Amino acid sequence: MKQKLLLLLIAAGTALSVQMYAHHSFAATYFEDKTVTIQGKLVQFLYRNPHSFVHVEAPDDKGMMQTWAVEWGAGGQLSREGVTRESLKPGDVVTITGNPGRNPDDHRIRMQSITRPSDGWSWKGVVQ
Amino acid sequence: MGNVRRTRVWAAFMYAAILVLLAPPVQAQFVGDFIPDVGLDLSGNWSPILHEDFLERIPGPELVNYSGLPITDGSRLWAESWDSSRLTMPEHQCQVHVSPYIYRGPLQMRIWDEKDPQSQKIVAIKNYISTYEQTRTIWMDGRPHPPAYAPHTWMGFSTGKWDGIVLTVYTTHIKQGWIRRDGLPESDQATLVEHFIRHGNHLTPVSIVTDPVYLTEPLIKSQDFLLNTNAGGNWLYPCEEVEEVEGRPRGAVPNYLPGQNPFLYEYANMRHLPLAAALGGAETMYPEYMKVIKDPPTAPKDPLALAEVSPHAVKNEAPNPIPNDGEVHVIPVQGNVYMLVGAGGNITVQVGNMGVLIVDAGTADMAGKVIDAIHKLAPGKPLQYIIDTHVHPDHVGGNLKLRASGVTITGANVTGDIADASKGAAIIAHQHVLDRMSAPSGKQSPFPADAWPTDTFLGDSKVLYFNDEPIQITHEKAAHTDGDSIVFFRHSDVISTGDIFVTTGYPFIDLERGGSIQGELDALNHLLDVAISKHDEEGGTFIIPGHGRVCDRWELIEYRDMVTIIRDRIQAMLKKGMTLEQVKAARPTMDYDARYGHDSGFGTTDQFVEAVYKTLNGKHEGRAN
């Protein structure tokens, strides 16, 4: 049983290696044990490597409007998960939950989920 | 009975399995029997087996987790100052993992032999690595490594040889990169020895990194790959830099000031380790360190705490890449442009049908050999232009002889039939260079009149079109001196920087001649605006520094970051009211001293710190004639 588990882990790791990307260390970049949720208007969707980004205008916890940089998966990863360059448009109102960045001045979030209430479109997953 | 039979069957199966496992790999037999001098065939598509060090390799290492690595104090300080926000800067987004590190990540790798079509001998073993789309060449034809003043690349320059069934590879000329991507640096002085060992469908590369700047002893790692018969998957990895974080001030480099890293204890506390263990060092690698963990030192070893800064200067571990053997050496850079080294400051040479243009003239005593080198590069072509980047004698000392060896045919608003043209090539420089080389009538000038610039400009820039190439000369105000120019060859895509950028030391900010730290940083940031990388911060625009090796944009980025971080530290110390002597004693350059520090000669560490301190403090006299 342990052997099967090990083989499974190796296989999973190998499979993940094809689709994941380790440009930087997430543990070094984000508070992985915390989450934050923002709701606001999408300004820009950068569908790219090493990671995609959505920029969202939304208030911070003090009510001040900020431009948030939300880090998402690489273009290849998102493509396999059905997210395309056309999935999001500037002006879309979205709700995003994710890990906050370690430098609060950067207003960064590592995407865990995104929802567009106007039509119910959503994505949830792990960005590596 | 059934149980006994099952046991026997199981035992037979295991016996057979052991025989299979113990049998030598087919490839090894083949090599040993038939082609011992050639070695194994590593060709194929390979996928990494990531369970070794999975947490570090895929999710990524924690901040201030330096455990198990033989790092120097300078490396530790470098990493503790590193703010992960730095990776949001456009110029850092496409930073490639260097060859000693890239095999640890998620990737697909293709290996193939490149053979000479006539002899079918292996010329090179090529690796294509999907992450960052890197193609690595391991030369197998016995060619030498390039000179130390040749450019560095992410993958470096590799040569290999088969030692039985083991491919041993030696790599030099690697760019600065990571030892661990939580900020621990690997310097551009690192070299790599690898052993690629194939066992059937398994490939084990073992790497040994030696870095005299940031490691106290070699770092040995291994990783495993599995032959992947499914050649599908994603082999492409284009990376495009974008504005991730909005509104960051120009030239700002995120970093933690000494003692202000808020995550210093996070990893140690999470793993219930004493901080000293998390901070790494060779001693943490060995079993004896268990005793230390059981009885940890009461005071953590934190190089960012000023009280713990070692009073001993760090030895510079980066030898000058220029031979300085009394000879002038030539290296092609790109397009029509070459670099001459060994004559003082680096000399840029552009050659073409119309003639020769040079940027800087080296020292006076080497001028004859420079002229010989130019004649070899461009036989029969006249030297028409000399552009002086600044006033120092190691850059303008050769003006007199070199000018006399050339000719002014056209340009500079003169023609070949006026008297001045017969004196030789035109010398172009910013007016401040002429001011400093000359003297009013009746006074002794520092340089003879025939060595002075003949064609000066007072404004921000001057342009030329020579040898079918647009050439932009831009004045950088109050940087290394007050007369600095950078020269951009737009067609060849090469920039000659003068001493604004050197790879051999900290910037020498000449306060007596109008230099300043802000001007230096402005100039470095302007250079970054002009330079454009070809692919993932490599290639594209090449940079000829005032001293040191040929570079591209990446070296400029790291240098600009370093100067900015040190400026930030000294600025913070000034705000605390520290005196110059206190600032020097605090050693705000410690993490870079093993790479750039000098305690004697031209451009010492103390001179740099003093220049930054004085210009930030507004207590320098500025331009003095």
CATH architecture of chain A: Beta Barrel
Query: What oligomeric state do the depicted chains represent?
Result: heterodimer
* Structural class by secondary-structure content of chain A: alpha+beta
Amino-to-carboxy terminus distance of chain B: 106 Å
Q: What do we call the CATH topology of the largest domain in chain B? A: Metallo-beta-lactamase, Chain A
Q: Can you characterise this structure?
A:
Chain A is α+β, with helices and mostly antiparallel strands and 128 residues long. Chain A has one domain (24-124): Nucleic acid-binding proteins (OB fold (Dihydrolipoamide Acetyltransferase, E2P)). Helix content of chain A is 22%, strand content 36%. Chain A contains three helices and six strands. Mean pLDDT of chain A is 84; it is low at 5-22. With 625 residues, chain B is an alpha+beta fold. Chain B has 18 helices and 27 strands. In chain B, the strands form five sheets. Chain B has a nine-stranded mixed beta barrel with strand order 1-2-3-4-5-6-9-10-12. In chain B, helix 4 (73-81) crosses helix 17 and helix 14 (517-530) packs antiparallel against helix 15 (553-575). The interface between A and B is large, with 37 and 42 residues.
